[in-house]
Target: DNA-binding protein
Amino acid sequence: MEVIAIQKSILEGLTNELKTLLELTENTTKKYTPIFKEEKWLDNQEVCLMLGITKRSLQTYKDKGLLPYSKLKRKNYFKLSDVQALLRAGQPYNTNDNGSID
Model:
């Protein structure tokens, strides 16, 4: 085992920096936690499986405004309640193999 000795002031400085980083992380997490606790969010693959559609058809639904979504770091997320509402209403359009609406 290797033992490394550092000055107490350096250790305290590192400890303070880690505490500051932890506080920043907790504050950022608190900001977004209520959003995710209120609603279950699904990614593209989960929505495609639930609706029984292809990724291209899902893109058509998004383009036509049939299914609202949110984007976080280049990834799309859909509220479970929105997907369920679309299922209850019956999928408003059928899409053919190339994703265009029939």
Remarks:
- The beta strands are 41-42, 70-72, 75-79.
- The chain has a mean pLDDT of 85.
- The chain has one domain: 8-89.
